[in-house]
Design brief:
Shape: elongated
Number of helices: 23
Radius of gyration: 32 Å
């Protein structure tokens, strides 16, 4: 090792060489060299350990660290005198290698070192770089790779045939590196070294330049015939694709239009099956891509899935271990006329996968154009890398995803108030949100503080169909589909019926009711094409149930909105050809709660929901501690009057989130209530919460017909009815149509004393369109 750097600091003050960090970033800024955690760099130095002994240390990039953003914390120091003796072994299992590496780490609390640490350790030079350069991989991904590398890069560059990273590759590389200035690893990139940091990185750039020039001279110009896909076809294809991919796990899509140069090739099917630029891409984007054409989503994915299952079943025994199969569905799809569509659990991961796919597809296209055919890993080698325990460990270390990870929500009226708070809460829980509002300035200010990778804002007048279309298309184009809509946009209107103008009356109806209808109508086909259900949450008002004087236009329009929510649930329930689960409900942001116990999700304590709400405000069935509420909503003293607060508190956001989450079994029904205003004013409607014998033991009475519930003078019809409600002509029972968590069609029997759910086969349910609706 030439000219080692000597550090006389104790290990507690051990500093990463600054030149290593800057060199790593210089390499990482070139996407054609490394991308998203690929490649690694190292430097060897000499230090004094706590016992005063001079020892050589290898600084190497931590596993998974990104060179483009490398910091001192991304490098791990290991004692070389603990690693070099391993060269005497002929073979070593991965678990033993990991154990030796952990014992060789020179500083406690360091991250796990790269799986290629031994390759760097066994090379004698002080500075070593390993990159997955596109042009170098292209030189090795065909039949005559060894001869081509020697011809292009020179005889002093060694060639190592493919072997999975680990101990065997480290030994082979050390042997081949004798009297060489660099190594090309088949399907795996380039390794260079030098006595100074500049010598190593400059050699990397020089060899990559030669490869680039060789390929550019020999690559013919290719004409691409691009098919035309209409906006409607594009939306249908993306939502159908997302729906199919979401049947295992909710995902977000990322569309890369720049890859149309690949997706529109006439040999796109061959390109998709040919493999990746390097095996390192397999863990994130799989070993191959799917080709999906308009109108053929299901058939294309069926073929892809069958081939994945066949490959695994036929070759898994050759691995010598029995891993659980990963998803057989594609992470990457090439769509002629659209480009590349990548799926991931969130927007960032989908984007990363699209970028990795872009580099991989570019390498494969280059190999096909220059050399005519691709030679890559066989099926066993691909499985061996994909199910390599050291790579799978990266997946095991991933944190538990947020509750709404992979979900996509539109929130209208999102520039302030309820809409903004709901959007913030949804983002905090992992959802991807499209914020829409007519006030562009306020919306821009609101969006500035939100996660830009999981949110997008659209200035839109939701009374205009063109604006609604733009909002929905933004959701589909940005994230690939839609899971929920919070219909919150609205206007307040004040004036007595004697003085109220027709224009003001129409304005209230248009914004609070007609606009909600237009948005409901627009998103309906998306929920149908996805086939995974969805949620429509209508933010209503207490005035829909308890109107006040001089609020005629507002109260009437909000009542219309509540009825719209009920009709949406009713009509979806009558979609007899579909087994899709659809949710629709109204939320009252303020006013006395209806506290309808029998319509609450089953995850909520009915004991809690039967209590009277506190002056701080509590949703029906959801009691939140006062510390979660805005300061202005609390009393100045324990016995003093409650301050009047804004109609929204975090408990309303909790309501929206609870209804949005899949664990909520509610499908329509009476609106959820949110307490607000003066706690001294008694609620207008008091629910009946007395327990009866049937309520205590509902199964005992499950098959007995129930009489229709009687309305008490102090009860609202909303306390005993639910939407969609159908009257069975042959029995005096009130039924609520819905789908349960297994997508079975059923009816919830409601009476004055509780809820029971009776499962009925989809085809045998006695309820038909046209039954009397109450």
């Amino acid at each position: 090792m030439a000219d080692p750097q000597l550090s006389r600091q104790g290990l507690e003050g051990l500093d990463v060489p600054a030149a290593l960090v800057s060199r790593s970033r210089r390499i990482g800024e070139r996407r054609d060299l490394v991308l998203h955690g690929g490649g690694n760099t190292s430097t060897k130095t000499t230090v004094l350990d706590p016992a005063g002994r001079t020892r050589s240390v290898l600084w190497i990039k931590a596993s998974g660290a990104d060179l483009a953003t490398a910091t001192a914390d991304d490098f791990v120091p290991l004692y070389l005198d603990s690693l070099l003796p391993l060269q005497a072994y002929a073979a070593m299992e991965d678990d033993d290698v990991v154990e030796h590496l952990s014992r060789a780490v020179a500083r406690g609390g360091s991250r796990r070192p790269s799986v290629e640490t031994l390759l760097h350790a066994f090379l004698p030079e002080a500075h070593v770089d390993h990159v997955h350069a596109n042009s170098i991989c292209a030189l090795t991904n065909h039949e005559n790779a060894r001869a081509t590398v020697a011809d292009v890069l020179g005889e002093d560059v060694g060639f190592v045939s493919y072997v999975r990273p680990g101990f065997a590759l480290a030994l082979s590389s050390a042997e081949e590196a004798v009297d060489r200035k660099a190594l090309v690893l088949e399907h795996h990139g380039l390794v260079t070294w030098g006595n100074t940091p500049e010598e190593s990185v400059d050699l990397t750039l020089e060899l990559v330049r030669r490869a680039d020039e060789y390929l550019a001279k020999r690559r013919p110009r290719r004409e691409v015939n691009s098919p035309i896909v209409s906006p409607a076809e594009r939306e249908l294809l993306l939502t159908t694709l997302r729906g199919r991919l979401c049947r295992e796990q909710r995902v977000v899509l990322h569309v890369d239009d720049l890859q149309r140069a690949v997706s529109d090739r006439d040999d796109v099917d061959q390109l998709a099956e040919a493999g990746r630029a390097t095996p390192d891409h397999i863990l994130r984007i799989g070993a191959r891509s799917a080709v999906v054409r308009p109108g053929e989503v299901d058939s294309s994915l069926d073929r892809f899935e069958r081939e994945s299952l066949r490959c695994f079943d036929e070759h898994v025994s050759a691995l010598g271990r029995a891993p659980a199969m990963r998803s057989p569905l594609p992470s990457i799809s090439l769509i002629p006329g659209i480009g590349c569509v990548a799926s991931g659990p969130n927007a960032r991961e989908a984007r990363v996968r699209a970028e990795l796919a872009a580099e991989s597809h570019a390498v494969t296209a280059t190999v096909l154009d220059v050399f005519g055919a691709v030679r890559w890993l066989d099926d066993v080698e691909k499985l061996d890398f994909e199910y390599w325990p050291l790579e799978l460990q990266k997946l095991a270390n991933v944190k538990e995803p947020p509750e709404l990870d992979g979900r996509i929500v539109i929130v209208t009226g999102a520039a302030s108030g309820i809409g903004l708070s709901a959007a913030e809460d949804l983002l905090e829980r992992g959802a991807h949100v499209v914020l829409a509002d007519i006030d562009g300035g306020k919306l821009e200010d609101a969006a500035a503080s939100l996660d830009s990778e999981r949110s997008v804002s659209v200035t839109a007048d939701m009374t205009q169909e063109a604006a609604i279309d733009e909002v929905v298309r933004t959701a589909v184009e940005t994230f690939g589909g839609l899971d929920a809509v919070v219909l919150n946009a609205g206007v307040a209107s004040f004036g007595s019926l004697k003085t109220l103008s027709e224009a003001e009356w129409n304005r209230a109806l248009h914004v609070n009711a007609t606009a909600q209808f237009l948005l409901t109508k627009r998103v309906w086909p998306i929920f149908e094409s996805q086939g995974i259900g969805g949620s429509l949450v209508y933010v209503a008002s207490k005035n829909a149930f308890a109107p006040g004087a001089e609020f005629g236009a507002y109260s009437a329009s909000k009542a219309a909105q509540v009825q719209l929510a009920r009709i949406a649930a009713l009509e979806w329930a009558f979609e007899r050809t579909s087994s899709i689960r659809m949710q629709s409900s109204a939320v009252r942001p303020s006013g006395p709660p209806s506290s309808v116990v029998r319509a609450l999700p089953r995850t909520v304590s009915r004991k809690t929901s039967s209590r009277r709400s506190t002056p701080h405000g509590a949703c029906s069935g959801f009691r939140l501690p006062p510390r979660t509420l805005p300061r202005q909503s609390r009393s100045s003293s324990p016995n003093g009057p409650a301050r009047r607060r804004a109609p929204f508190s975090p408990s309303t956001a909790e309501l929206l989130r609870r209804f949005r989450a899949e664990r909520s079994r509610r499908r329509g029904g009476p609106p959820f209530g949110q307490m607000g205003g003066d706690h001294r004013r008694p609620p207008r409607f008091r629910p009946n919460v007395e327990r009866t014998a049937e309520q205590a033991n509902p199964l005992r009475h499950a098959q007995q017909p129930q009489t229709a519930p009687a309305r008490r003078p102090h009860q609202s019809a909303l306390d005993i009815e639910a939407a969609p409600v159908v009257r069975d002509r042959n029995a005096h029972t009130t039924r609520i149509l819905r789908y349960d968590d297994e997508n079975r069609f059923g009816a919830a029997v409601h009476s004055d004393v509780g809820e029971r759910f009776l499962n009925h086969p989809h085809d045998g349910d006695p309820l038909r369109r046209g039954d009397a609706i109450r």
